[in-house]
Every structure is written in C-alpha cells, then in structure tokens.
C-alpha cells in the first residue's frame, strides 16, 4: 500500500512538472508582461521604470533560464514571489485555498449525497413518473448555465426575499468569533455551494441511476433474490455497493477539478477563492501566481485521484488483494 | 458639529496589490494608502494648495525657490518623529527611484535641502509652472527614512505593514476580503480624525458591490465602484447622497488613441470624421448615466488653463461621411481596442463601432485583457484604442505628455502613443510649462488647444464623472480635489 | 408413486413485444417428485430456464406468466404475494445458476454471502451463521473451508465458486433444488466433480432436483427422469433410460443422433507423409499487471516447449482443460501473438521470424476459424466484403474477389445472395459457415479452428463438423482443431495432442488416445466425459 | 435506419429534445431573414421592457439593441461553436484513442499519459488561459474548447478499441493480411461509432455551455453576439432589466437540455443492451 502511494506520488510529481512547464510556456506566449501591467497600474511609466521592474522579476533572463529557476524553486517547495501582490505565491494561495476548499467540498458533498440519493430513488422507480420527474429535474440543473443559475439565485434569495447573503465569505466587519462566525460563514456558503452542487448533482444522479440499473441486471442480484432476501437489503448491500464503484471514480475526478474550476461561482458570489485569484493573475500576467494556482489545483486533482484510488482499494477487494 | 467615533465601511476595487504608496501608485492603493501616507499639500476643488504636512509655504519671486514649513508635532505610526530629513529622503532618494511620474517632474529640481527640522527647500533649475501641484500624497507621499534608508525598498518587510503619518494606521489585511485601518491617536491635527476605523471591503463583482450598499454592508461607494447603470437606482435610495466632486485633481479624460502613423487613421480627415461620427451624448446618457461631460479637447474643464474656444465636433454623421468621401476611404477595416476595465467600456466600444459603422467605417473589436491591452498600446499595435488618463490639475503634468513628439517611444502607454508630431505644438507646450505667470501660460495653452482640436491626434470622448455614493449621514467625505483618497481625515458620521 | 413436490400445470409465459416468439413457455406440464433428479433438456432458447425461474418468481422484467399454475405444497406459487415468495425462496426452493463467475457478489466475502441466507429468513445468530457457513463449505468439499470462507469470489476457481453456490443453496435444506446449467461453464473434470457432488447431496438430503442442461452427456450421467423442450413446449418426457435409449419424438432423436460418438474408429490415416507445419520448442509467457509503476506482475507460462508436426491432409486435435494453453499455441502459430522462442516452419519457412509484408504474405497459407460466430464477423460489414477483404488486401481486384466470394459461399452451402447481407441476418451455424468461407478465401494450406463449434447447439455442431470434414477432403487441407470437448475431438481428429498447463502431455493417433491413454491426465479427462459410462455400457 | 428511428422515437424526451433543437437550428439559419438588421444596431431607447412594443417583443438592452434579434444571432454562434469544437475534439481524440487502444504497449502508455496530463489540468481554467492567451475570437474559443474536451473522447475510443481489438473479426482481418491502418479504419472505428455519437451529442451541449461561460467572463468574440455575452453584459444590470439575462439564459438552458435529451435518446437507441431491456 505504502509502495503504491509512493509510486503514485512519484508519478504525480512528474505530471505536475509537465503541467508547470506547459503552462509556463503558454503564459509566456501570451502578449503582455507583468512589468507593463504594473507600470500601467502605477499611472505612469517610462522605459527605465519598466526595465527596472523586469530586472527585479528576473524577466530579462532567457526564458529557459527563467523556467529552470522556477522549477528549481518548486522542487524546493518555493512557488516564487507574486509580482503584483508583492508576496510569496504560496502565502497568497494558502490564504485563499481554505475558502475554495470550503466552497467546493461543500458543493461536492451536496452533489454527491443528493446525486446518489436521487439516482438510487430514480433507479428504484425506473419507468415510473417519479423517475421521470427526478431525471428531468436533474437534467434541468445540468443544462442550466452555472453562472446564470447563480445570478438568478442571488436575485431571488438575496435581493428579492433577502433571506441569504448573496456574496462574500462572511459578514465583513462583524468580527464574529467561534460558533457565531461559523454560522455566519455557513449562511454565506449556502447559495454558492448549492448552485455549484446542484449542477454536479445531475452528473452523479445520472451515473448512479445508470449504474444501479446496470448492476441490478447482473447475475449475483438474481442469486441474492433466490436466497429470499428482502429487496431493500438487495438494493443496499448488493446493488448499491457495486453500483458505487464507477461513481467513486467519477467523484474522484470531479472533486479535484472543482477546485480549479470554481472560477465562475467565485466570481458571481465574490467568494475569495483561488479561482478568482487565478483569473486576476491571468489578466495581470502575474506569471508566478498563475503558475502557482495551476500547480495547486492540479495537485488537488492528483490528490483526489489518489484518495479515490485508495478508497477504491477498500471498496473493491479485487484491487486491494491483487 | 463633527462627532467622534464610528466606522466607515467602504468598497475598494480592485484589491490593491500593496499599500506602500511610495512603491505602488495605482488607483486602489492611492485610495486606501492615502489615509495612511500624506504629502506636503492637499488641493481644494479649485486646485488651490492647502496645508497638509506643510503648514505653510513660500515661492520666491523668480519662481525658482519653494520653501515649506512643516508641522512640528508630526509622528510616524510607529511613534518616531517626522522631520524634514524624511522629506528630503522621500523626494530626493526614495521616490526618485520608485516613482516614475514624480521622477519626470523632479527633473526640474536642482536641489532639495533641509535647513532645519521643520523646513524644506526645493530649488528649481528653471521656473516650472505646475510645481506646486505635485505635493499631494499620491504624487509625493512621505515615506519613513528610518525604515527605508539603506534597504532594498521593494523587498522591505515593512511594506506589508505600512508606516505613514496619516490619520489612520494600518491594522489588518485579509486578502480577498477586507482591509482595516484604525484611528491614529497621535495624529497631529487636534481632534482628527473623527472615525475610529475604516473597513475597506474587497468585493470584486460590481453587482455584488451594489448589493453590499443596498443591504447596508457598506456605506460608501467611491467613484467607479458600481456599474454606471446602477448609479441612478442606488442614488434614489433613501438616505443616500451622491457627489461627482473630488476628481478635479485627476480630471479623468477619456479618448481613443488613433494611430497617426499608418492606415486610415493617419489621415486627419478620417480622424475628424471619427469625431463627427460618434454620438458622444448618447454614450454619456446611456453608458455613463448622464454623468460627466462631452469633452471639447485635450484639456479637462476642471484642469487649469482649459478653454472651450475651439472647434466643436457635434454628432454629425453627414459631415463624417463627407470627410470620408473626400479622403477616398476605401472601407479598410480598423481595429478597435476596448479598455479592459469592465462592462461600461466594453459597451462603449460596441456603441462606437456601431456609430462608425453607420458612416461606413468598418470596425473590428479586438478584445484583450489588461496585459494584452497594455502591450498592444506600448507596441503601437492598434488602430484605435480606448483609454482614459488623469491630468493632475495642470496641462504640463497630465496633458502635454500625450502630444509632444519627444514623448514618442515604444514601451509605454503613458506617452505620445498615437505618434502625433507637430513642431508648433511641441514648442507651445515647452514654453507654457516654464512660463512664469498664469496669464502667459493661459495664452499659450489656448493656442495649443486650438491646434490640437483641429488636428484631432486622438478622438476625445468624455470627461468622466465618477460619482461617489454614500449615506447622507456620512459628512465631509469629499472635501478636496482628491476626493475619497484623502477625505477620511475630515469625515464623521452623524448619529 | 409419491405425490409430486412441484407440479407445473399448463404453464404459459408470455414474452414482451418484439421477442422472437410470443411465448417463452407454452402450455408446459411436468411434475417433480421427491428424491429424484429431473433433467430438462433442449437447445438454447427453448424455454428451459423460464419455467424454472417462474417457480422461483424470478422471471425477468416484462416477462409474465399468463396461464397455468405451479403447485408447491398445495398452493399455486404464481398466486403468492412477494412476501410469501421471499419466504419460499432459499428456504423451500433453492437455485443455482450457470455462471459461477458472476453469480456471486464480487464485493462480499463468501461467508457473508452464505450467512445472508440465514439472515434472509431470520434464522440463527450471526455467530452461528458463520459456523454454519464453514460447515456447509466443508460439506460441498471445498479445500480449506476456513480460508475459503474469508475469501472473495474472485479468489476462487470456477469449480470452487460453483461449490459455494451449492453450499448456499443447501443452507436451509430446501425441498427442491433448481440447477440451471450449473456445469456448462466448467471443465470436464470439474463438471464431473460437481455432478457427483449434486448427486451425493441429493441422495443425502433427499431433495428433489430440477436440473437444466442442454448436454445429453450430463443427462445420461445424472438424470432419473428427463423432459425434452423445444420452442417452449415439452416434446417428450420419461425416465432417463426411456428417453435416451428409445427416443420417441423426432426432435429428441435428432438431438441424440447429433451427439458426437466417443469411440474413435481406428481409421486408416489418410496422412500424406509430407509435413506442412513443423513446430519446435515453442514458448510463450504472459506477464500481466506490473506496468510502469505497479506491483508484482503475474507470470503465466502458457506455452511450454511445445513440439508439433502437422502433415498435409491431416487433422490434428489439441485438447485440454480451460487455461491449458491451447489457444495460445494456435495464436502463436498464426502469429497473432509473438512466441517468446521456438520455430514455426510453414512449408519450410520459419513463420516465427517474419514480420511486415513477408509475414502478411506467409499468412496467406495459414488461416483461422474462430469460436464465436457472433464476434468473429464485423457487424458493420456485408458478408461479401468480409470474405473478399482478404484477397483484396493481397492485391486481387475487387470484382474478382467478390466473384470468388460467391463461389466460396456456395462451397459452404450458402446462397450467393448472402454477399449483400449483414452478419446479423444469419443464424449461428450460418455465420460459422461464413467464417469458414473467409478462412478459405486466401486458399490456405493449413486451417486452425479454435473451438470452432463450441458455441453451437449440438445439431448445428454436427452440421458444421461434417462440412469441415468434407472441405478438408476436397481441398486437401491440413487442420488443427482446438477443442476442450473430447467427444468432438474423437469424431474429427486423426491425431490428438493433449495439453496441460502449457505442456503437451501426450500426443498420438485419436483411437490410441481414447482407447489406451498413456498419461494420467489424459485418463482423468476421458473418465470425466459425461455420459461415457452409459455409452460404454450400451456399446459393450 | 427505420428501426433506429423507431427505437429513438420511443423515448418521448428525445423527441421533445429534437423538436427544440430543430427550432433553434431553424432560428439560427433564418436569423438574417427574420432580423435583417445587425443585432448590434441600437434601434430603440435602452432598457425597453419586454412586450412593450410589438417590434421588440423581448425588449432592448443597455444600448437599445433588440434582444430577440440578439437571441437569434446568438443561436448561430452557440451552434457553430458547439458543432465545430466538438468536431475538432473528435478529430484530436479519436486518432489518439484509436492508436493507443490498437497498438497498446508503450504507444498506449505514452498517449494515455498525455491524455491524463490534459485531464489533470482543471479544464475550465485551462480554457480561460488559452482564450486569454490567444485573444478572444471565435477561432481561439473553438480551439480552446476542443483542447479541453478531447480527453474523454480519447478515453472512450481507447476503451472501445481495446475491447474491439481482441474481437475475433479484427484478428481475422489481421490474418487476412490487411494493414493496421485499414483495420483501424474499416474494422474497428466503424464499430465505435455509436458511443461516439452519443458522447458527441453531449459534448456539443457542454461546448455550448463552455462558450457561454467564457463569454460571460468577457472572453467571448467581441464581434459576435452570443448568448453568454448577452448574459455577461446583462449581469451588471440584472436589477433594472431582468429580461436581459433571463431570456438568453433560457435559450441556453433549452438548447443544452435538448441536446442532453437527444443524447439520452441516442444512447437508448444505439446501445442495443439498453434497448433490449425494453425500458
Ligand atoms: N430477459 C428476457 N427478456 C425477454 N425475453 C427473454 C429474456 N430472457 C430470455 N428470453 C427469451 O425467452 C425464450 C426462452 O428463454 P430461456 O432462457 O428459457 O431459454 P433456455 O432454454 O434457458 O436457453 P439457454 O440454454 O440459452 O439458457 C427465448 O426465446 C429468449 O430469447
Ligand atoms: N492475453 C493474455 N494475457 C495474460 N494471460 C493470458 C492471456 N491469454 C491467456 N492467458 C493465460 O494463459 C493461460 C493459457 O490460456 P489459453 O487461452 O491459451 O488457454 P486455453 O487452453 O485456450 O483455454 P480455454 O479453453 O479457456 O480457451 C491461461 O492461464 C490464461 O489465463
Ligand atoms: Mg437458460
Ligand atoms: Mg481458448
């Protein structure tokens, strides 16, 4: 097991380096450089000023040298310095990461729990009107553009009914502490997490439903019925567990992707996460910061894949014992 | 009567990269750090200098020697006393290295000296008309010598906990969320500031900012915080005041760079046609919610030495068509760069495209992000491009730079980007800058404005109005030409 | 005679719309008596499983009984509620299925799956259940029952899994055991063991067993009484002896006649002396798993130093249990797989060393007929194209290739119009003929038939075997016939090679192998052939 | 074909989806006839509410442009982006998947690592970066969407090819002397068509969503009126003019929904295993 994890980590490291390298070249291929942006923001600049900035950031060195320096830093767990924010990239990201994780993991749990529950329910009533209703509803959520749903949710629940805060991470300035603060954050979390979660719920719902139906056709289900087991037990113990295998795989892929993919939600809900950080870094060509965000979100994907694989080993004895 | 106590909740957008005003001078930094750092002077709505760190000043007859007398009880936020040595260090050492805009102005300065702890003397090489206009915090912020001298300025750890002399000191910065400033108890002006603290809320989405005001989370929306479409709706709310004052020093003027070097835009008639083809009144009403003014030329009406005695380009598509006909425009596509600063600018580009399309000019919008836009301008890779620039109260500081031929150089978007070359204009600007009397300067600037408006080196659009919206019980928010940027010193909240 | 435990009366089961016929089971009546083994035989799709499933209330969705009754204990099972049915299942009637691979839940330990039977009927404490599970496993003869109880299904062999299934079925001592082709997926030797086990348990517990099979060999081995089904109807029923020795119905007669006879005749081998294919020192090892980063790989020595010679016009059989390496040998010969070492001389040229165009050229003379008549034809190509593709790839013009395809279709007794149809429009036997035509299209000298008739029903099997024998004669082909069915091998082969664990353990003329096997392994194989004793008794 | 249609039409949702899609396609094609004026043209006062003037049934936007005309032209963009980027993604994904699956070994390893790599980068973020870097235009958007959406195709095709590759008819083709290329093109790929079609129909839907998301973030082609653009532009005025974001949102919703329904229908009709279940 340990060996397996180490192997996987090694492989992940290689993928990460590859991703960083690709992105490094991509970003440098883009027009514009951070010095110009910063000069621009300063309200005035001359060639000397820009040259100063470029030198300060090491942008005057050959590209490959820059890449080398960067990767060397990364290998020593140093993600570099953000040009624009004048802070270590790692600090900036760590600052924002909890918010993103909170949002995406809540959304993830919502989507997984609701999705599988709905999927199981629908599969149990396949062909009946309730199946159609559940499936259609899920499909509707899936077909709704995320940002649009978010806008409508803000309009409805925040502006019109004024039930929930429509943006932000917490009530700024309220200085809540302890439980009160958690409650406050929780309230802020409801809208973004639900809109994000409902979208992905559809994916799990469809997958669970299909998988349940597929598994219920398998021979061992017939065996179980021949034993005289109650259909509830058969559903739970035999069909559900087997049907969850592909869902687990999908969930592992999704959970990681969510972290880097919450840009839209974070934008609409003004959620201080790394998705937004990335978007800002991109517009400002804050190379190190952008690469850092990519690094972290790709690492998240890999971590979640690894967790899935480990989980999978627990669920599926064929892999565990082999 | 001012009341002490209370908190101001203000929106800040975008989040400033740093609060060290000596190193970074972008808009949001100036707004927040303007409470932390101070300059020697402030300016009233008429751009007349007012005391700040300098309680008084004299200018010699010949216009070459400027003497400033400083307050003697000023302390830095860390308790160290502020003296003339700090001024000399800031202006002569620190800012010369870090502040590109100031550096240009300081080229006129021969020496900066401190005869005693509360006196500073600037000696100029030759008279420089706008010199008294460069002492506000954003242009010449005072930085603590005892912290920065001999260090690597940009990586000094103190940059994260800025130390100034201003009415508020830095307390906390939750990145992506808020910045908190608290009252500086040892401030040198008695009883000021009135507020206990200022919360700057980082809310990156314009609609969210509007909601934040509506739901009472914030009380002050500095200019540009909400989309223009929202201004009226919010202004109509109860207990809400709105002012478009506080931008006089900056005099933000928008225009389209027109590439004078090549393509159809190299032809003066084409450029004039562009001016006639644009319905700028519509743009102001539809996009800017009726705020701001249609510009008459290169100088903002709030800037000194403005004149409206120039050719007027009213919306007249027929005239535009005639001009195009005359020059024999063949329908060549021109590329238009919008300003990547939000929806309004995007819409504006679309409206201009539509306007120009109606007189037969084929426009293609090239969309880029901030970095791409900067680069394209700096590399002159455009045909037409939106922008807006500050004027800093005086044509010599904020106008000439865009039109004089010595300022044509790739690599910057703050100079003569359009590539306009006119010897007469160069001469007039040069003379006007060093002329001693205001009358003399006015005459020269009248002439140069008329010439420029005839040549249309760039297509002027609007003098932008950036209204500040606030609850009416927030008093004395905008008291100077710099508005919110240094306003909180006087602000109090009525109970 | 005693009263029947289960009595099926005029059962009629309707199939959903669009099925191949209206009723899966049409007016079927039969009885199952205590203490007897009733075999239901018939070809695939004849409705054997349906009637049994109906008794368990386990019919597939949309398949409904529409008439008749199934009397158990004096009540009509068809009228029971689902709750009553649940009580019946597992406790009074138990069932085992064909596929041991998929009939157990892959995620649950064996003991838990057995314990579930008790749980389902609310019997015993969890501890007792576990103990019973081990007792049951011991009873069905699983080696090391303690360990097997803790195992997951994938850790057991097919035969062991089938034993687990039986243990589960026996758990509550049901009065009826329904076994739906429980040995079809197993090797002959394992099959023999399982049949014996069922027989013994039946005697010990005095159950009634309904045994479903399509194999008359199995019937002869195990049945007390037999019911023969065709198209959803019972065409003949009686005691095993009556039906096997003296079939009345035409269909039964046909089926019995089609069974390949075991006794290989001592033929005058028509073997030309010229060897066409000489195989020497062939080796093939599979390494699976492992990969770039993963755990220890699994190594299987599938072909272990195999030597073979095939002469012109000869048929060489390769027999052996599943996994013994038969297919691997065949695939190495045609180079669908690269052997690790050894030479394969085809008419003097070493195939094993060729590659690229030379290999393509050499393959013209050695072709293959595949097992699965469904998977061996591209469902998206028309038959004409399937046959003509080979010659065209070797530069024959399209017209000529198609003309040849028509001839070949006639040769295998198919209509020339078939070239314009898709494979799915043909029956299994017809498809196998198409496969044969395709193999012949390149005018090969050697044909390898890997389980070419295993997937076919007996009657069709007989036809295809006849066709092969006929073609071989007419075209002077040499044939390598790979099969696990010794009866088939006995019928068609001149010489036979017996494989075990990658090695050829015995090779010789067919009659010698059957009548005078030299190795123990061959002997076990032969003894395990179902129905052999009865056949010998009849012959002898 | 008739058989296929019969099975497809048994799924009521799929038929509804097809009907909706047909309408969208029709509107897209007829847009220039229905609305001869450019959708960018400022025709009335800004923020004219819906149903106030017959000529502008869905009102006007912040610049007084006709919303319904924008919707019609937006349909063109959405469908174009959806289709072209899907085709592009298929053109990348199918060869990679087919080669990996057919040849196996190190080729498979290399190609799959490559694919995995693209799956590890958060796809929406990558799309944003690509569009920003190559500057927003219809080409760059299509390219970016294709680049982030091909990996599932490659995986699907690889899986299918892997299982088809050991099918006996493929082995028969090898024995009959056909070249690898012929075998891939003639024997293998035609049999992967069904799942690819199903996947493709869903990819078109995803691509439309992706395009609209990019436009929403201001990364759309500034010279083309698209639905995402309309919502993005309307976001800031959502309070005073709900209809500006509402209608294009509904348009996207319906189109994506339609494509998903069609995808499900295709799946039922093309997947014989499901079809037999007689759902
Ligand atoms: N789930 C199902 N849905 C619809 N029809 C079915 C289903 N299962 C079987 N059939 C049909 O019912 C008929 C009888 O099937 P049954 O399974 O009883 O045959 P069998 O004799 O057991 O065949 P085999 O030897 O192949 O198992 C066949 O025509 C078959 O096609
Ligand atoms: N592609 C493969 N990769 C790894 N192992 C394989 C492969 N093919 C076969 N084997 C293993 O090699 C051994 C011999 O397999 P082979 O298919 O030759 O047996 P067989 O005698 O044809 O069996 P059957 O009667 O089941 O067809 C088996 O243990 C099998 O598991
Ligand atoms: Mg059956
Ligand atoms: Mg085999």
Automatic annotation (TrEMBL), chain A:
Organism taxonomic ancestry: Bacteria, Pseudomonadati, Pseudomonadota, Alphaproteobacteria, Hyphomicrobiales
PANTHER family named among the record's database cross-references: ABC TRANSPORTER PERMEASE PROTEIN (PTHR43163:SF9), DIPEPTIDE TRANSPORT SYSTEM PERMEASE PROTEIN DPPB-RELATED (PTHR43163)
TM stretches of this protein: 12-30, 101-124, 136-161, 185-204, 243-269, 289-312
Keyword Transcription regulation attached: no
Name of the protein: ABC transporter permease
Domain (ABC transmembrane type-1): residue spans on this chain: 97-312
Topology of this chain in the membrane: Multi-pass membrane protein
Pfam entry (one): BPD_transp_1
Subcellular localization, as worded in the UniProt entry: Cell membrane
Highest taxon of source: Bacteria
Statement: the UniProt record of this protein carries the keyword Cell cycle: no
Keywords: Cell membrane, Membrane, Transmembrane, Transmembrane helix, Transport
The species this protein was found in: Nitratireductor aquimarinus
Recorded family membership: Belongs to the binding-protein-dependent transport system permease family.
TrEMBL record, chain C:
Record's keyword terms, sorted: ATP-binding, Cell membrane, Membrane, Nucleotide-binding, Transport
MF GO annotations: ATP binding
Segments forming domain ABC transporter: 6-256, 277-526
Pfam family, one: ABC_tran
SMART domains linked to this entry: AAA
PROSITE patterns: ABC_TRANSPORTER_1, ABC_TRANSPORTER_2
Similarity remark: Belongs to the ABC transporter superfamily.
Name of the molecule in the record: ABC transporter ATP-binding protein
UniProtKB/TrEMBL annotation, chain D:
InterPro entries the record matches: BP-dependent_transpt_permease (IPR050366), MetI-like (IPR000515), MetI-like_sf (IPR035906), OppC_N (IPR025966)
Keyword Lipoprotein: no
PROSITE patterns reported for this sequence: ABC_TM1
Coiled coil ranges: none
Locations listed in the record: Cell membrane
Protein's UniProt keywords contain Transmembrane helix: yes
Alphabetical UniProt keywords: Cell membrane, Membrane, Peptide transport, Protein transport, Transmembrane, Transmembrane helix, Transport
Pfam hit, one: OppC_N
Predominant place of localization: membrane
Residues annotated as domain ABC transmembrane type-1: 75-263
Membrane topology recorded in Swiss-Prot or TrEMBL: Multi-pass membrane protein
Domain of life: Bacteria
Residues annotated as transmembrane: 14-35, 79-104, 124-148, 195-220, 241-262
Entry's family note: Belongs to the binding-protein-dependent transport system permease family.
Name of this chain's protein: ABC transporter permease
């Amino acid at each position: 097991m340990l060996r397996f994890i180490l192997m996987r980590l090694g492989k992940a490291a290689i993928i990460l380096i590859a991703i960083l390298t690709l992105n490094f070249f991509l970003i440098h291929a883009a027009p514009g450089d951070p010095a110009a942006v910063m000069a621009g923001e300063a309200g005035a600049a001359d060639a000397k000023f820009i040259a100063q900035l470029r030198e300060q950031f090491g942008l005057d060195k050959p590209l490959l040298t820059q890449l080398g320096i960067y990767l060397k830093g990364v290998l020593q767990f140093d993600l570099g310095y953000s040009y624009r924010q004048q802070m270590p990239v790692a600090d900036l990201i760590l600052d924002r990461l909890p918010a993103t994780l909170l949002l995406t993991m809540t959304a993830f749990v919502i989507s997984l729990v609701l999705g599988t529950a709905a999927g199981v329910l629908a599969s149990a009533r396949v062909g009946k009107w309730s199946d159609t209703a559940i499936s259609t509803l899920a499909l509707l959520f899936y077909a709704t553009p995320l940002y649009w749903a978010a806008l409508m949710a803000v309009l409805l629940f925040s502006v019109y009914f004024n039930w929930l805060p429509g943006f932000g991470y917490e009530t700024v300035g309220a200085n809540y502490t302890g439980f009160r603060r958690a409650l406050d954050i929780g309230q802020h979390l409801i809208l973004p997490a639900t809109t994000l979660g409902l979208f992905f719920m559809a994916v799990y719902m469809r997958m669970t439903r299909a998988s349940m139906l597929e598994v219920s056709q398998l021979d061992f289900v017939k065996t179980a019925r021949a034993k005289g087991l109650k259909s509830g037990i058969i559903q739970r113990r035999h069909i559900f567990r087997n049907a969850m295998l592909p869902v687990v795989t999908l969930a592992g892929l999704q959970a990681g992707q969510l972290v880097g993919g919450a840009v839209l939600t974070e934008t609409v809900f003004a959620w201080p996460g790394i998705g937004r950080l990335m978007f800002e870094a991109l517009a400002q060509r804050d190379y190190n910061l952008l690469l850092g965000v990519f690094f972290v979100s790709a690492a998240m994907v890999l971590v979640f894949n690894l967790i899935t694989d480990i989980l999978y080993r627990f669920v599926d004895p064929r892999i565990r014992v082999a | 009567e001012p009341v002490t106590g209370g908190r101001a909740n203000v929106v800040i957008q975008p989040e400033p990269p740093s609060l060290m005003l000596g190193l970074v001078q972008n808009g949001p930094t100036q707004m927040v750090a303007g409470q932390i750092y101070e300059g020697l002077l402030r300016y009233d709505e008429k751009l007349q200098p007012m005391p700040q760190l300098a309680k008084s000043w004299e200018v010699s007859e010949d216009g070459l020697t400027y003497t400033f007398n400083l307050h003697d009880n000023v302390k830095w936020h860390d308790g160290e006393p502020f003296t003339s040595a700090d001024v000399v260090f800031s202006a002569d050492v620190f800012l010369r290295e870090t502040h590109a805009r100031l550096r240009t102005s300081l080229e006129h300065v021969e020496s900066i000296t401190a005869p005693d702890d509360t006196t500073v003397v600037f000696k100029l090489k030759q008279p420089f008309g706008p010199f008294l206009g460069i002492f506000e915090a954003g242009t010449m912020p005072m930085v603590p010598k005892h912290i920065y001298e001999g260090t690597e300025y940009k990586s000094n750890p103190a940059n994260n906990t800025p130390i100034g002399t201003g009415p508020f000191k830095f307390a906390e910065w939750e990145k992506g969320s808020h910045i908190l400033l608290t009252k500086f108890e040892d401030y040198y002006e008695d009883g000021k500031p009135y507020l206990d603290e200022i919360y700057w809320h980082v809310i990156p989405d314009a609609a969210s900012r509007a909601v934040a005001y509506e739901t009472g989370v914030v009380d002050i929306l500095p200019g540009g915080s909400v989309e223009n479409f929202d201004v009226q709706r919010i202004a109509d709310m109860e207990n809400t005041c709105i002012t478009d004052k506080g931008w006089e020093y900056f005099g933000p003027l928008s225009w389209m760079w027109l590439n004078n070097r090549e393509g159809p835009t190299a032809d003066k008639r084409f450029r004039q046609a562009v001016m006639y083809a644009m319905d700028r009144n519509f743009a102001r009403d539809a996009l800017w919610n009726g705020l701001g003014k249609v510009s008459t030329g290169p100088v903002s009406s709030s800037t000194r030495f403005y004149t409206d005695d120039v050719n007027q380009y009213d919306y007249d598509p027929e005239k535009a068509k005639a001009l195009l006909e005359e020059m024999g425009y063949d329908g060549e596509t021109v590329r238009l760069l919008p300003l990547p600063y939000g929806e309004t600018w995007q819409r504006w580009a679309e409206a201009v495209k539509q306007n120009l399309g109606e007189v037969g000019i084929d426009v293609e919008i090239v969309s880029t992000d901030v970095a791409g836009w900067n680069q394209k301008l700096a590399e002159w890779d455009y045909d037409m491009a939106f922008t807006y620039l500050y004027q800093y109260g005086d044509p010599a500081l904020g106008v000439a730079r865009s039109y004089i031929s010595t300022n044509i150089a790739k690599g910057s978007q703050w100079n003569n980007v359009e590539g306009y070359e006119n010897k007469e204009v160069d001469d007039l600007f040069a003379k006007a800058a060093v002329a001693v009397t205001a009358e003399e300067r006015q005459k020269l600037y009248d002439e140069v404005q008329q010439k420029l408006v005839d040549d249309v080196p760039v297509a002027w659009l609007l003098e932008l109005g950036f209204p500040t919206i606030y609850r009416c019980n927030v008093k004395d928010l905008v008291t100077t030409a710099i508005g919110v940027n240094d306003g909180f010193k006087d602000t109090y909240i009525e109970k | 005679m005693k009263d029947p435990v289960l009595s099926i009366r005029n059962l009629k089961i309707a199939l959903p719309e669009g099925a191949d016929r209206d009723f899966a089971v049409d007016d079927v009546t039969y009885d199952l008596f205590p203490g007897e083994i009733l075999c239901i035989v018939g070809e695939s799709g004849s409705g054997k499983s349906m009637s049994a499933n109906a008794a368990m209330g386990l019919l597939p969705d949309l398949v409904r009984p529409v008439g008749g009754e199934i009397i158990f204990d004096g009540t009509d099972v068809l009228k029971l509620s689902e709750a009553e049915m649940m009580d019946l299942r597992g406790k009074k009637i138990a069932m085992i299925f064909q596929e041991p691979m998929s009939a157990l839940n892959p995620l649950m330990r064996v003991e838990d799956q057995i314990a579930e039977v008790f749980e389902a009927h609310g019997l015993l404490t969890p501890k007792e259940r576990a103990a019973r599970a081990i007792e049951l496993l011991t009873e069905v003869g699983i080696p090391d029952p303690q360990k097997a109880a803790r195992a997951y299904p994938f850790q057991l062999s097919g035969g062991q899994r089938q034993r687990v299934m039986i243990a589960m079925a026996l758990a509550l001592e049901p009065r009826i055991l329904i076994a739906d082709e429980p040995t079809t997926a197993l090797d002959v030797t394992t099959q023999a063991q399982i049949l014996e086990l069922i027989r013994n348990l039946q005697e010990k517990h005095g159950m009634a067993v309904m045994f479903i099979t399509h194999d008359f060999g199995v019937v002869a081995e195990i049945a007390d009484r037999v019911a023969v089904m065709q198209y959803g109807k019972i065409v003949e029923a009686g005691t095993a002896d009556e039906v096997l020795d003296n079939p009345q119905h035409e269909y039964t007669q046909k089926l019995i006649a089609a069974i390949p006879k075991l006794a290989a005749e001592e033929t005058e081998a028509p073997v030309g002396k010229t060897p066409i294919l000489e195989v020497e020192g062939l080796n093939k090892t599979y390494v699976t798993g492992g990969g770039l980063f993963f755990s220890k790989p699994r190594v299987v020595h599938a072909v272990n130093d195999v030597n073979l010679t095939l002469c012109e016009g000869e048929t060489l059989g390769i027999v052996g249990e599943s996994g013994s390496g038969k297919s691997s040998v065949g695939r190495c010969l045609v180079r669908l797989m690269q052997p690790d070492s050894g030479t394969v001389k085809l008419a003097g040229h070493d195939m094993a060393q060729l590659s690229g165009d030379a290999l393509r050229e050499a393959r013209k003379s050695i072709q293959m007929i595949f097992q699965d008549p469904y998977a061996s034809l591209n469902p998206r190509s028309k038959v004409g194209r399937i046959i003509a593709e080979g010659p065209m790839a070797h530069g024959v013009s399209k017209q000529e290739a198609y003309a040849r395809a028509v001839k070949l279709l006639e040769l295998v007794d198919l209509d020339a119009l078939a070239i314009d149809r898709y494979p799915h429009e043909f029956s299994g036997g017809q498809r196998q003929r198409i496969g044969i035509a395709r193999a012949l299209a390149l005018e090969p000298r050697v044909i390898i038939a890997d389980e070419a008739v295993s997937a076919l029903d007996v009657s069709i099997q007989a036809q295809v075997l006849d066709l092969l024998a006929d073609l071989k004669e007419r075209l002077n082909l040499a044939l390598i016939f790979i099969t696990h069915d010794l009866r088939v091998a006995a019928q068609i082969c001149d010489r036979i090679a017996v494989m075990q664990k990658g090695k050829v353990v015995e090779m010789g003329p067919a009659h010698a192998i059957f009548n005078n096997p030299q190795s123990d392994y061959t002997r076990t194989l032969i003894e395990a052939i179902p129905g052999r004793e009865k056949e010998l008794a009849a012959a002898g | 074909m008739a058989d296929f249609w019969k099975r497809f039409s048994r799924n009521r949702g799929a038929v509804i989806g097809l009907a909706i899609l047909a309408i969208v396609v029709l509107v897209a094609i007829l847009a220039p006839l229905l609305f001869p004026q450019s959708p960018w043209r400022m025709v009335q006062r800004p923020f004219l509410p819906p149903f106030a003037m017959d000529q502008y049934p869905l009102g006007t936007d912040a610049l007084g442009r006709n919303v319904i005309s924008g919707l019609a032209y937006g349909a063109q963009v959405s469908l174009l982006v959806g289709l072209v980027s899907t085709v592009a993604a298929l053109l990348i994904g199918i060869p990679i998947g087919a080669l990996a699956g057919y040849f196996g070994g190190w080729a498979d390893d290399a190609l799959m690592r490559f694919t995995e790599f693209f799956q590890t980068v958060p796809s929406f973020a990558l799309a944003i970066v690509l569009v920003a870097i190559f500057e927003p235009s219809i080409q760059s958007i299509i390219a970016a969407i294709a680049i982030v959406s091909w990996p599932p195709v490659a995986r699907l095709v690889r899986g299918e090819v892997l299982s088809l590759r050991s099918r006996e008819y493929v082995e028969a083709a090898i024995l009959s002397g056909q070249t690898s290329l012929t075998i891939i093109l003639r024997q293998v790929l035609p049999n992967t068509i069904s799942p690819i079609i199903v996947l493709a129909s869903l990819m078109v839907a995803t691509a439309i969503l992706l395009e609209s998301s990019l436009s929403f973030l201001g990364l759309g082609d500034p010279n083309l009126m698209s639905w995402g653009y309309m919502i993005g532009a309307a976001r800031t005025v959502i309070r005073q003019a709900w209809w500006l974001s509402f209608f294009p949102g509904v348009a996207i919703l319906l189109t994506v929904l339609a494509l998903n329904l069609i995808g499900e229908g295709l799946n039922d009709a093309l997947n014989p295993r499901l079809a037999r279940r007689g759902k």
